[in-house]
Write a structure and sequence with these properties.
single chain, mainly alpha, 5 helices
């Protein structure tokens, strides 16, 4: 959920969770190359704390480290055009979710 104000993002996630009977939310947590949290990690954690007021399912964090690079490589391997490669958020989300399932 990017490019939105916090209230709209919380409303969107809450709606998706309720409409789809989601039982767990997986959230990418930005970390640096050493696995340490970044200023962006703090913002993500603050967002999740606000989200927990509305969403009553478990919320788990997964490292986002290297997800953008993996996503770009996936897009290139799939033959995506340069224009299409610029929008890799969906692929990054899939990489984060795959990481969660691989670790679980």
């Amino acid at each position: 959920v990017s490019g939105k104000n916090v209230d709209a993002a919380i409303a969107d996630v809450t709606r998706v969770v309720l409409e789809n009977k989601v039982t767990k939310v997986v959230v990418g947590l930005p970390v640096d190359y050493a696995g340490k949290e970044t200023p962006a990690s703090i913002r993500v954690r603050q967002f999740v704390n606000m989200l927990k007021v509305y969403v009553k399912v478990p919320i788990v964090f997964v490292s986002e480290y290297d997800s953008t690079k993996q996503s770009l490589n996936t897009a290139i391997e799939a033959g995506a055009s340069k224009k299409r490669r610029r929008s890799i958020d969906d692929i990054s989300a899939a990489v984060i979710l795959k990481t969660y399932f691989d670790e679980d």
